[in-house]
Amino acid sequence: MNTVVEAPVLYLAAQGDGAVRLPDGQVAYCPGTLAGERVRLIQDAAGIWRLDTVLDASPDRVTPPCPLFGTCGGCSMQQMQPAALLDWKASKVRHALQKAGFAPIPEPTCTQVPPYSRRRVDLAVRRMPDAMLIGLHARGSKAVADMTVCPALNPDILRLLPAFRTTLRSLQAIRSEASLHINLFDSGPDIVLLTDSPLQAPDRIRLARLAEEHGIPRIGWRLLKGDGEPETAAQNGPVFQSIAGHRITPPPGAFLQATARSEHSIQQAVMAALPARLGRRDNVIELYAGCGTLTLPLSERCRVMAYEGHAPACAALKAAGNTRIQAQCRDLNRQPVMAKDLAKAPVVILDPPHAGAKLQMRQIAQGRPAQVIYVSCNPAALSKDAALLAEAGYRLDSIAVIDQFLWSAETEAVCSFIRESSHRSRSGPSRSG
């Protein structure tokens, strides 16, 4: 027999699940709930607590806009009013920085992207007896929810999926499962297909036909459980993307900020945090530079020494031919830029992966450059990394929160830290968004 509990939701945990205190004093975390609500939960046979009924709803509760909500694992917080969700994400960032040891915490500027604006997505592919499913995994499951609608995704991506279902179903390279990475570049959709079996000659012909019929400049491929970079399976035209007015050719599967608006907001926040006296001849250091999302706009203001560990991305940045950028391929988690070199830079900018900057952050804290601008996609990692800056005598100068993963618990932030002994004139914080 299932256990039933009625209780208030105390708060939302880091992943957006409501925390409910059970009669035995333990706390259960339940998706689909909001802080301040009174709910009825049911514990299933596996011991998982699930929402049964909202007895007293929060004023922030809304009807989820997507009919796949609850089945598709992509958007876990569509039950929350968007403005309230943005406030909650800002509070996550503030809490992370408080935990790191900073006080006072500046009031963040906040930006939220609109629906139907996401331009990149990683989709699961599953072969069924009578269909090919393309979508996202259901939460806590390997089942694939077929993506027939999506209010977060750019419609140009969604319109491609029926053709992909037809073509992928015919491929010998997919026995049971695959993965589909789609970037919407200025040149058109850029695809990387990962399959559980090698690509056959007829498969390449079908992919080339798909690219030609749907205006796809490039389709890359590699094995699902393989290593190395994707090979080009079909090429139907040039591949290019504009970043701050500079044209680059990203490699297959290149990292791209989730939306064009959020990319611009992140760039604005970084540029606004730079010191006002930074000149065009000054040299800043950028870590985890990627293909140049920040490097290229920074080069308009100063010279940039850019470090990136992914060789194809670094090559794309070099190929842009910007003489104000010196790009170097370097695995910063194994071979960090050392403290003595970081100390010479007036500003160090970093946009590390989800896990944070690891060994590189220790060198930054030891080098103590005058200013550190940290772009974060993970408040937990931000808190750990920023704690080293707090210990090294930095103060928190500005925060920008960008909600580019609409209806999810993911949070982007740009934080500027100033070394206390550094007395330099600065520009004011960004007020965009």
From TrEMBL:
InterPro entries: NA-bd_OB-fold, SAM-dependent_MTases_sf, U5_MeTrfase_fam. It holds the Pfam family tRNA_U5-meth_tr. One of its GO terms (molecular function) is rRNA (uridine-C5-)-methyltransferase activity. Keywords: 4Fe-4S, Iron, Iron-sulfur, Metal-binding, Methyltransferase, S-adenosyl-L-methionine, Transferase. One of its GO terms (biological process) is rRNA base methylation. Gene3D superfamilies: 2.40.50.1070, Nucleic acid-binding proteins, Vaccinia Virus protein VP39. This is Class I SAM-dependent RNA methyltransferase. It comes from Acetobacter garciniae. The active site is at residue 377. The keyword Transmembrane helix does not apply. The keyword Lipid metabolism does not apply. It comes from the Bacteria. S-adenosyl-L-methionine binds at residues 257, 288, 308, 351. Belongs to the class I-like SAM-binding methyltransferase superfamily. RNA M5U methyltransferase family.
